[in-house]
Amino acid sequence: MTKLKGNGVRFRSITKPFIDTTKKSSHSEFIIKIFAALAQMERCTIIERTKADLESTRPRVKFWKHRKD
Fold first, then answer.
1. For the chain, which terminal residue's Cβ has fewer other Cβ atoms within 10 angstroms, N or C?
2. Where are the domains of the chain?
3. Are 11 and 19 in contact (CB under 8 A)?
4. What region holds the Resolvase/invertase-type recombinase catalytic domain (predicted)?
5. How far apart, in whole angstroms, are the C-alpha atoms of residue 17 and residue 21?
6. Nearest Cα to 19, choosing from 38, 4, 34?
7. How far apart (Å, rounded) are the C-alpha atoms in residues 63 and 42?
8. What is the pTM of this model?
9. Distances 39 to 2, 36, 54 between C-alpha atoms, Å
10. What does the pLDDT read at residue 55?
């Protein structure tokens, strides 16, 4: 958000008027930071789940690779 803001990028939601960074408002800055934190948390959760799934799949893949019919 800092890079975007530095380049003059602003955001205004059409359906949610409280999400508006075109005006100087502490409320809108707070909401944007909350959304950014939630997005980061979701990203980390997806990474953790993907790694766990890959680790749980490895033993099964090895079994099927070495199995001969």
1. C
2. 2-66
3. yes
4. 1-61
5. 10
6. 34
7. 33
8. 0.58
9. 15, 5, 23
10. 87
Q: What is the pLDDT of residue 28?
A: 73
For 3-41, b where at least 16 C-beta lie within 10 A, e where not — what string?
eeeeeeeeeeeeeeeeebbeeeeeebeebbeeeeeeeee
> Which pLDDT tens digit goes with each residue over 12-66?
778 877 777 777 777 777 877 888 899 999 999 999 999 998 888 877 766 666 6
Q: What is the DSSP letter of 12?
A: B
Inter-CA distances, 18 with 25, 28, 37, 63, Å: 10, 6, 18, 54
Distance between first and last Cα of the chain: 56
Q: Measured between alpha carbons, how far is residue 22 from residues 6, 8, 29 in Å?
A: 13, 10, 10
Report the pLDDT value the prediction gives residue 43, as an integer from 0 to 100: 96
